[in-house]
Write a structure and sequence with these properties.
alpha+beta; 5-stranded mixed β-sheet; 3-stranded antiparallel β-sheet; 4 helices; 10 strands; about 15% strand
């Protein structure tokens, strides 16, 4: 896991999903080259020994789900069309994060989120939250601005939670949250379900 620095988050043998629709386990990083799919400039990187087709399927299902919201669809398209390569690392500890210095998203495809108010957000919405951090012209600057952020911790988290995340939650019928301090990661069988099992 990356160090603190410009890390924003809630909370190896590298394989990638190849554009041909088959699983490739090569030693390097392979770009997702599938025109018509949702992200052509995002590297899908698995953790050592854990990269597998099920994670890739969770990832693509999450993107398909997020694309139902116009704001998230625009974020995904901007990242797709960017000259920057974004890496998505699968993790398994519920500690989703975005590291702006390396353009890396750390995402747990089975981690739903139980809000302070008792609502359950999907892992897919968690991915959307981190992609919204990636889609920030200010880079890591707003992470340092704590004035007026209250329970959001910093202005970057506030920007994402009250902006793209709240709008997507409304479109997708998910509960929204009003902070970045409370709540807890839970488990779900896939990236779009919302049972929030302990």
């Amino acid at each position: 896991m990356p160090g603190v620095g410009d890390l924003t988050g809630c909370g190896g043998a590298l394989g990638n999903w190849g554009g041909s629709g088959t699983w490739s386990e090569d030693a390097g990083l392979t770009n997702v080259q599938n025109p018509g799919q949702f992200v052509s400039n995002v590297l899908v990187v698995g953790s050592p020994g854990a990269a597998n087709p099920a994670e890739a399927l969770d990832y693509f299902n999450a993107l398909k789900y997020l694309m139902r919201d116009p704001g998230m669809a625009a974020i995904i398209r901007r990242l797709q069309d960017s000259d920057t390569i974004y890496e998505v690392y699968f993790i398994h500890d519920g500690n989703d994060a975005y590291l702006s210095s390396t353009h890396s998203v750390f995402w747990d495809p089975k981690s739903s989120f139980l809000t302070k108010e008792g609502g359950c957000q999907s892992a897919a919405l968690g991915l959307g939250h981190e992609l919204a951090h990636a889609d920030n012209l200010w880079g890591g600057f707003l992470v340092k601005v704590k004035i007026g952020a209250g329970d959001y911790e910093n202005q970057e988290e506030k920007r994402v939670i009250v902006g793209a995340e709240a709008k997507a939650a409304a479109t997708l019928g998910e509960p929204r949250r009003y902070d970045h301090i409370y709540g807890e990661a839970r488990r779900d069988p896939n990236s779009t379900s919302r049972t929030c099992r302990p």
